[in-house]
TrEMBL record:
Protein family per UniProt: Belongs to the trehalose phosphatase family.
Reaction(s) the record says it catalyses: alpha,alpha-trehalose 6-phosphate + H2O = alpha,alpha-trehalose + phosphate
Top-rank EC class of the record's enzyme: hydrolase
EC numbers for this chain: 3.1.3.12
CDD domains: HAD_TPP
Name this polypeptide is given: Trehalose 6-phosphate phosphatase
Keywords: Hydrolase, Magnesium, Metal-binding
GO MF annotations in UniProt: trehalose-phosphatase activity
Species of provenance: Inquilinus ginsengisoli
Length: 250
């Protein structure tokens, strides 16, 4: 069943008892040709701060970006966060960042292979993330199938790693950690524990978070019209998501 379009007032009642898990790129903010070119709308930081207060601090950013990058984008606001699709995790705004240990030699070898591959077209770009590495092809969309095949081929010599395709990007990361596992971890600690989770995201990489929220009796909100999805509700685009967040923050 396709997710239903969410009403602006949906979830407003009882939102103070919810735990919110929000993806960033493509969900809260519009995508850009390069990750460093995204723009955070000027009022979004204040809105997120109000919403976090309304849910008693049970609001986390769950993103493919590194936590340090999230802190930079939303400064001076700091929130609980899961970065690099769960490879980084921070329970509280001022708490330490836990990072999954990775084999640096494997990571360096994969990054070198991707950099060699990107020499075939200026529209391809490698993004080191710290514990993972991604290759973007937003500026060369016709190469998408080749990029995905090349990245998946690298996994034959990288046991314990996998290639995760998203919107015009493929990320190479250690297996066994994803956004769903990050949600499970948040929901085991205060102030998230005992609350109804709501996960919001736009990409296939958010499906694990959606599934985790549903397992815990919560809801999942897909931003955009991507199919298939396990999401229960839909918002049309990041502008609609920001409008909804502003409404429930009030």
């Amino acid at each position: 069943m396709a997710p239903q379009t969410i009403d602006m007032t949906a979830f407003a009642e009882g939102i103070s008892e919810s735990a919110l898990f929000l993806d960033v790129d493509g969900s809260l903010i519009d995508l850009a040709e390069r990750p460093e070119d995204v723009v955070v709308p000027p009022d979004l930081v204040a809105v997120l701060g109000r919403l976090s207060a309304r849910v008693g601090g049970a609001l986390a950013l769950v993103s493919g970006r590194a936590i340090a990058d999230l802190d930079r984008l939303f400064a001076p606001l700091r929130l609980p966060a899961a970065g690099q699709h769960g490879l980084e995790w921070r329970a509280t705004p001022a708490g330490p960042v836990d990072r999954v240990a990775v084999d640096r030699l494997v990571l360096e070898r994969l990054e070198a292979a991707l950099r060699g591959y990107t020499g075939r077209d200026p529209g391809l770009r490698v993004e080191p993330k710290g514990a993972a590495v991604a290759i973007h092809y937003r500026l060369a969309p016709a190469l998408g199938p080749d990029v995905i095949a090349f990245a998946e081929g690298l996994m034959a010599e990288a046991p314990g790693w996998h290639a995760m395709a998203g919107k015009m990007v493929v990320e190479l990361k250690p297996s066994g950690v994803d956004k769903g596992a990050a949600l499970d971890r948040f929901l085991a600690v205060s102030p998230f524990a005992g609350r109804r989770p709501l996960a919001l995201g736009d990409d296939v990489t958010d499906e694990d978070a959606f599934a985790a929220a549903l397992r815990h009796g919560g809801a999942a909100v897909q931003v955009g019209d991507r199919e298939p999805t396990v999401a229960t509700h839909r918002l049309t685009d990041p502008a609609a998501a920001r409008a909804w967040i502003a409404a429930v923050a009030r």
